[in-house]
Amino acid sequence: MVTKNNFLKILGDNILIGDGAMGTVLQGLGIFTSPDLFISKDESSFKILPEVHLSYLKSGSNIIQASTFGANPIKLESEGLLKEIKNINEKAVFCAKIAVDGYKTSNKNTITSQKPVFIAGNFGPTGKLLEPFGNLSYKAAVEAFYRQADILVSTKMVDIFLIETMMDINEALAAIDAVKNTGQDIAIICTLTFNEAGVTIMGNKAADSVKTLLEAGCAVVGANCSVGSDKMLETVKKMREADPDAKLIFQPNAGLPKFSEGITSYSETPEIMAGNISRYLAYNPSILGACCGSTPKHIKKIAQLVKKKSS
Fold first, then answer.
1. Where are the domains of the chain?
2. 151 within 8 A of 90, measured Cβ to Cβ
3. How many Cβ atoms are within 10 Å of 277's Cβ, its own excluded?
4. Which of 134, 151, 157, 261 is deepest in the core (most CB within 10 A)?
5. What is the DSSP letter of 82?
6. Peptide bond preceding 132: is omega within 30 degrees of 0, i.e. cis?
7. What is the chain's percent helix, strand, coil content, to nearest 5?
8. What pTM was estimated for this model as a whole?
């Protein structure tokens, strides 16, 4: 595990590269189920998931997210997979670990071996609204996320936590509290999902969220999903204006989704996405990656963009 202070030291004035979508790559391989269901039902996941993670590492990623986005107990119960919670979370982290170990071994004694690489335990939403808009209490949300966090910490393979795609800042805070309740000093990254104007569906504003999430204990905060890389720029501006010194992360979608014959595709090519994200650089982000619709090719272009800036 990497502590908050150590993670911030590693970041410094650098820009780390996140990964991209897992589901998009799996879909390209003809696998149309969610990663958690894929892990629980198909032994080939032990081969395929590490290969996808490795492809992101080779493309320039510093942070690999274990496929645990939907592996909290509330979400799994809705899918009839609650009894598989330990198995799914542990297997997902193990698949990421296989990729990281393979990457480090193949790049031993090279310049690339000095590249920092982290496995992130990934939290997504429960799929239920918190009170007063829904029936899920804050306490129940914390307990649910704690159950998942405890499993992930117990693997001793998770370096950091990445909480993402949160539409309600209170659910994000519940996930943060859950990680802190494990008693581990581990770096937490948290991103909300905003519309083009920098507001979540629940009315949380990008500028306000920076202070709230940092005060809750996060090392890095920002935005992911919801909009394409061009439309996220307004949120980038608002979050930087809210705090000139905050460590920020941005991981937009690869444009807008298009549906054809049961297959989802996205409008932004790797070149278009990198061109849009180049406009983020003026606002000093600390981590750049991508979300839905992205592939290792998108990440490679973003990594090249960042390398060119720092050279």
1. 4-310
2. yes
3. 27
4. 151
5. G
6. yes
7. 50, 15, 35
8. 0.96
AA letter at 194: F
**Token digits for 240?**
């930087």
Letter for the amino acid at 8?
L
Closest CA to 65 of 49, 45, 84, 81: 49
Task: Give the list of residues 6+ apart from residue 250 with CB closer than 8 angstroms, or none.
Answer: 222, 223, 224, 232, 235, 236, 277, 280, 285, 287, 288, 289
Spatial separation of the C-alpha atoms in residues 223 and 248, rounded to whole Å: 8
- Total Cβ atoms within 10 A of residue 264: 14
Which CATH number applies to 4-310? 3.20.20.330
Model confidence pLDDT, tens digit, residues 229-263: 999 999 999 999 999 999 999 999 999 888 877 77
Bridging pattern class, strands 16-17 and 287-288 = parallel
Gap between the Cα atoms of 2 and 303, Å rounded: 23
**Structure token digits, residue 232:** 């996220």
The pLDDT of residue 66 is: 98
Integer-rounded Cα Rg, in Å, for the chain is 18
Q: How many CB atoms lie within 10 A of CB 275?
A: 15
User: Which tokens belong to 290?
Assistant: 């991508």
DSSP, collapsed to helix, strand or coil, labels residue 64 as: strand
Q: What's the one-letter identity of residue 117?
A: V
Residue 108 has pLDDT above 90, yes or no: no
Among 162, 182, 181, residue whose Cα is nearest residue 172: 162
Distance from C-alpha of 193 to C-alpha of 92, rounded to nearest angstrom: 24
Cβ–Cβ < 8 Å for 67, 36 = yes
